[in-house]
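Lecture notes, continued. The same structure-token format from the folding unit now serves as the input rather than the output. Read the line below as a description of shape only.
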């Protein structure tokens, strides 16, 4: 799956920021554009990684595939 990422260069700091608009709060940064891309990739992977979820007794967890 491909996610769109907004990369911005901060001229004052000299660093790059990276934000994934589809995933609220998923952001990263790096000293170079390449580092920012690598860091946001890791952030996205962690964001979408399965986590343990506490469910009510009468609920079940199912998977849905997109793309």
């Amino acid at each position: 799956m491909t996610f769109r990422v907004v990369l911005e260069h901060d001229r004052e700091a000299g660093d790059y920021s990276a934000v994934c608009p589809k995933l609220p709060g998923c952001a990263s940064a790096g000293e170079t554009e390449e580092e920012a891309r690598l860091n946001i990739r890791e952030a996205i992977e962690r964001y979408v990684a399965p986590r343990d979820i506490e469910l009510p007794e009468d609920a079940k967890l199912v998977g849905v595939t997109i793309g």
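Point for the exam: The radius of gyration is 16 Å.
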